[in-house]
Structures are given as C-alpha cells and as structure tokens.
Protein 1
Amino acid sequence: MVNPHAPRQNQLLRALPQAEYERLAPHLEAVALPLGKVLYEAGGVLRHAYFPTDSIVSLLYVMATGESAEVAVVGREGLVGVALFTGGNTMPNRAVVQSAGHAYRLRAALLRREAARTGPLSRLLLRYVQALIIQTAQTAACNRHHSVDQQLCRWLLLSLDRLSGNELAMTQELIANMLGVRREGVTEAAGKLQRAGLIDYSRGHITVLDRPGLEARVCECYPVVRREFERLLPAPTLAVGGGWTAPSHAPYGPGNIDGAGG
C-alpha cells in the first residue's frame, strides 16, 4: 500500500527530479498537524515551510475585531510559507490547520538556498505562487458577489480536491469563520445542500454524497481555480516508490516545471 504520509504524497515534492528531491529529502522533517494548530500568526517570522501530505491548512485574514475570513487553502498540492522564497519572512495572515493530518517541514534557510539555485524547484515554486494568487483573488470575488451556499459548495470542492475521501470533520462555526459569514448563514446553506441530497451533515462531520451535484451548483469561481491549478502544476500521477494516484476529479494537470506548457 502507498504510505499516505510519505514526502512524495505532496505534489510539489513528487514533481521534483530525483536529484533535486534527494538533496532535500534528508532535511524534510515529518510532523503531525492536529486540527486547529496555528503554523504561523500574522506578522510572525516564518521559520519553516510545510509540505502537507494528507492535511489541509487555511490561510486566514484576521481583522482587528477578531473576525476572520479564509483567503486560500493549501493541501498536498502545495506548501505553506511562500514568503520564504518571495523575498519576505512574514505574512499578514494566519495559517491554521483546517483538516488534521501530516506534513513535512523544511527549515527556512534550506528552502531559500534551494529556491535560489534557479533550477526545477524554483520554477515549480513560482508556478505554485501564481496558482495561489489566482485562488486568493477568486476567493475575494466569490465572497463579495456569490451566495453563501455557492461559497460553501466552492469551499467543499476545494477541500475535497485536497483529501483522499469524501468526508470532512468541520463544525458550522469553523466553516462560518472560514467564509467570513454568520453561523446562521452556514446553517441555512448546509441545510439546502442536505435537502438536495448533496451532503450529509451530522455532529461536525460533512459527507459529500453527490460531487457532480455540487459541481453543478457551484459558482464559476471553483472551476476557474481548478483550471489554473491544472494549467500550472504537474499532474499528481503515481510516482515510483510511493507517490499519489490522482482520483478522476483531481484538479491538477500537465504543467511542465521546465518552462513549457503555459
């Protein structure tokens, strides 16, 4: 069986040429990421980059009032800590574990050193940053212009793309914090999806029963983000020695880290 916690379960690590990966591998440290763990606070110095394997991390903007809204999600397709190789050491948001699991972390100095080599890793990271920017921008537009149930569909689909199953452990209160809406709005939206037979929600667990139904109901924001990840990042096919086999709905396509194809 494929080990779900192997480093190359992360798409970025899996996409690296063998020589590049072997240079990083001795420095990758396996860490458990429990639900709610804060990887960094707004303005805090980033000391590690995290490559999730089976966890999801939410990037949240926290207002002065304490209210928050999710600006992006990161799972096995990416990494947490892009500021480490884009020229800064801090971010104005908070990184919180949304779905418990595991990741591999790399010390900040090592990531900077490898990114500065301007090789395959550097090109891959730049593509990932572009995809992340697009996700952030589309999330802002979605939160401004689309209904809560459409936002919930988008959030569920983005989360499913980063998990192996169809179940999420998440309370309505946490979802409301992610979407930046009132809990009552999430309750109403989740009720609509449940009555339509798309999800089952019970005791903090959401099971997606009809993914095509969610995709038919979601706004344009989800497919925009999905297409850009497909265009920019390599497809997560099975790697020799313990990679991940993409499900049929996997959103990441045949991006070429050597510069071709977009």
Protein 2
Amino acid sequence: MSLHLWLGFLAATLVVALSPGPGAVLSMSVGLRHGYRHALAAILGLQTALLLQLSLVALGLGALLAASENAFLAVKLAGAAYLVWLGVQKWRSPVGEEGASPMDEALKSGFYRQGILVNLGNPKAIVFIAALVPQFIDPAAPKAIQFLVIGITMFSIDVAVMSGYALLAGRFRNRVRDRRAVVLQNRMFGAIFVGAGCLLAGASRH
C-alpha cells in the first residue's frame, strides 16, 4: 500500500470512527458510570469484533453477507435485539441510596463481551468495510501485508476515538454519583441503546 493510499484510508477511518454509533454510546456509558479502566475493556471488545469483521472481508466472506438478504436480516435482528436488551437492562438497573448498583460488579466482568456483541451485531459495519477497504488495496502488492496495515490502522484509530469518548464522559463521573443522577443516567443511556436497536432493526443493506 502506497503512502497516498494509506493516508486516504486513514482519513476515511477517522471520519467513520468519529461518527456516533452504538460503540461510542457503550464507551461513554461505561466511562461515565465506571471509569476509563472498565471502558477500555468494552473498547477492546469493540476492536476484537472489528478485526474479525475485517478478517471476513479479507477472506471474501463480507461480500456474501452483503449479498445474502437472509443472512443480513438474521444478523441485523440479532444485533438489534441485543441493543434493546442492553437498553432495558440499563434502564431497569437497580440503584442504591448512594448511587451504587448491586449489579455493578457483575456488569464490570462483561464489558469486553458487550463490546464484541455490539459490533458483531451490526451487519452494516461489515458491509461498509467490504465496500470501503477494497478501494484502498493495491492489487499489484501483497494483500496480506496491506490487510495487516489496514487492521492496525483501524484498530489504532478506533481505540483512540472510543477512548476519547470514554475519557470525556468520565470527566463527569463525580457528578453522577448520587441516586437521582445515576437513575437519570441509566435511563438516558437505556433509551439511547433501545433507540439504536430500533434504528438497526429498520436499516437496509444500502
């Protein structure tokens, strides 16, 4: 991959990463409630799914998902259902008098898995990758090395952007420790997750 192609891909990746989506919502939600250390687990889960999706594209399977209406629909509905479930769990999360939730410790162990499932449940992501990445592949150069460079670039940019979202949200963490603020935060992010799930359920392949 030439420097010119790589810079073009870098710019495209940055624009996509900065666009708000379920991954950004998850990063901000965890960063605000639990701090950056736990948000990083969710962010690494998002990247695990992202690299898996890129691997499928490299193997030519991304185009199959884009072409198969049934496969796209199945992944889309599963992803939408998971986002709605996350939203309902967030909305209903019990809060103690001091703002602490009995579910907090259990939730902390599952942020990495949540990150994976949030990204894997979005079929438009792999369709987008399948449409974007080939434009920056030089057919005259070894593809394996190019996909490696692309993977490292996507991973680095997305980690940086999601970390920015989480750290920004974390700056307000001390202001949402009382019970009323925690309840409001839970319901706000719960509603956003449910809304994201509904939007995904209505999304098309194009």
Protein 3
Amino acid sequence: MERSTFVYDGDCAFCTRCAEFIDRRIPTGVHVVPWQFADLDALGLTEAECEEAVQWVGADGSRAAGPDAIAKLLGDSGPLWRVAGVGLRIPPVRAAAWPAYRWVARNRHRLPGGTAACALPQEARERLYGPSGRPAADA
C-alpha cells in the first residue's frame, strides 16, 4: 500500500460532510474513501467494522478505529492538525473521546447534515450499545 487510507460510511450524510471537511480543510496525503467504494479485502477490513466506526489503515498496515483513526488522520496532516491528533492520544482525552465518538455514532442521523440513512443498522446498534441504546458496558 502506497499511502494510508481513512474509511468512512458513505451512506451517512453526516459522515460524508465530515469527509468533505477533511478534503477541504485538512492538508493530508491520506486517501479518504467511503467504505462502500473501498477495496475492503485489500485493506483487511470488514463491512461490520466499517459500519461501526471510521477506520484507518496505515501505509505500513497499522490499523485504528473511531477516535484513534481520527487521531492517526490528524497526525498525518498539517502542523496545527497534528497537534490535535497528538491531543487525541493523551490517555484522559482518549478515554473521553471513545464515549463521545460512540454518542456521535449513535446519534449521527440527528446531527447537522445527518439523515435517516445515517442511522446505524439495528444489528450494529444492538451489538455496540445493547437493546437499551446505551453502550453495552453501561447497560
């Protein structure tokens, strides 16, 4: 693989808006692609992984998901964004980033730019958050 890849849900308007923001505002050599148009086999990803969270596959084969993937993306960009990426890796920030990411993932259809198509499939929601809609660890 020549360059790193950041994979998002192209069926979600909120996710697509975020990817467009990355393309316009974050200088990076990373390939940003919706999972629906990515070669998941070549990236070593599954549809289920991509439905649950954004994914990072480094040029070196390293992988990350959710806020860890976002930190990797930011770390591979311009100087100011790189600082934000380092910030996301600080243990207390990282610990808070995961619940925040899960909340956004669970509610992305309600966020600006979101549509009903942004809602996670019921199976993925229950696998991640349990039948109550709360994270399984909290249930």
